[in-house]
Automatic annotation (TrEMBL):
<keyword id="KW-0472">Membrane</keyword>
<dbReference type="GO" id="GO:0015711">
    <property type="term" value="P:organic anion transport"/>
</dbReference>
<feature type="repeat" description="Solcar">
    <location>
        <begin position="1"/>
        <end position="56"/>
    </location>
</feature>
<dbReference type="Pfam" id="PF00153">
    <property type="entry name" value="Mito_carr"/>
</dbReference>
<keyword id="KW-0813">Transport</keyword>
<keyword id="KW-0677">Repeat</keyword>
<protein>
    <recommendedName>
        <fullName>Mitochondrial adenine nucleotide transporter BTL3</fullName>
    </recommendedName>
</protein>
<dbReference type="InterPro" id="IPR023395">
    <property type="entry name" value="MCP_dom_sf"/>
</dbReference>
<feature type="repeat" description="Solcar">
    <location>
        <begin position="85"/>
        <end position="170"/>
    </location>
</feature>
<keyword id="KW-0812">Transmembrane</keyword>
<dbReference type="GO" id="GO:0015748">
    <property type="term" value="P:organophosphate ester transport"/>
</dbReference>
<comment type="similarity">
    <text>Belongs to the mitochondrial carrier (TC 2.A.29) family.</text>
</comment>
<dbReference type="InterPro" id="IPR018108">
    <property type="entry name" value="MCP_transmembrane"/>
</dbReference>
<dbReference type="GO" id="GO:0016020">
    <property type="term" value="C:membrane"/>
</dbReference>
<dbReference type="GO" id="GO:0055085">
    <property type="term" value="P:transmembrane transport"/>
</dbReference>
Amino acid sequence: MVAPGGEALGGVIGVARHMIQTEGLFSLYKGLVPSLISMAPSGAVFYGVYDILKMAYLHSPEGKRRISMMKQQGQEANALDQLELGTVRTLLYGAIAGCCAEAATYPFEVVRRQLQLQVKATKMNALATCLKIVDKGGVPALYVGLIPSLLQVHVSSRKKTICTFRVSLINASI
């Protein structure tokens, strides 16, 4: 599926060709630096929060009770079994950790999107773009659209509205 207006350029390949001809080959990599910079902190926050939640549960009275019940029932409780949280807790802790990672690295995504929206005539680097966003809207401008991003409604009829809402919020912040 091609976005409205994309047909005029011949779809994805036509758009890529147009970008290379008008802005050069590196226009295909707009926003790459903030994306790469956000990858390590995103993983670190995700796994750090998940591990904190997991250890808190395993050291809670309920977690200790579960481990002692396993031992009383004669089950050999190896280290892997003791660390098992169950499906619901795993999903819940994963969701919480994912939200924390998204919130921690969201400013990089805002800068990346702004870099991708820039035209060659007004092109700035990632740091200058970040400073411009903060200058115009303060630090909260780096978090505009975070709530819809955390909600990630994937109903097709609503997804277009949310994406449009996020883009318009980001554009309004600059």
